[in-house]
Design brief:
This protein is mostly helical and 170 residues long. It has 2 domains: 1-38; 39-169, no CATH class. 69% of the residues lie in helices and 0% in strands. The structure holds zinc ion. Zinc ion (ZN) is lined by residues 132, 134, 138, 144, 147.
Length: 170
Amino acid sequence: MAKDAELTTLRNLHEKLAELRQHEQEILDEMGRLLNGELGIGAILRRLEEHYSMLWSVRYSQPYVWAFAKDRPHLKRLIKSLGVEQLELRMGSYLKNPDPFYVKAKHSFAVFVASINTHAVAESSRQRDEPCQHEPRCPGTWQHYRLLEAEASGDEALIATCRKYNTVQA
Ligand SMILES: [Zn+2]
């Protein structure tokens, strides 16, 4: 039997190695994304942050103020567990939710994270494969999906804001 001090050392080493392995996996995932011609994690984070902030600004008429040190680790974890598209859909569902509990929390990202399973959305509702017919044309695929979703919601303010963002980026 190992002595207490040895056990503690072993536990610490075990934890360190687990962290290293996780970091390795993150590097592998990032390399895989870049090799597939997909967005790197930095660009994915920016895209989701912009998406959230845009939806938030429709409701509160100003951009969302992030607590990056706290919010980004959650965002990274959610990207890993849910994927970008499901996460975008859940953001949309959350920020449209008029529940007084969310309104009182000013639809904060922290409350979104805490209630993440409440906002699950079926992905089949998206018309993914149709090419963009918008006028003016959407600058990219995800801007196009974002506008499609806004149109599906019938929310005029949201549609207008999506169009504005699309124009800025074009
Ligand atoms: Zn479009």
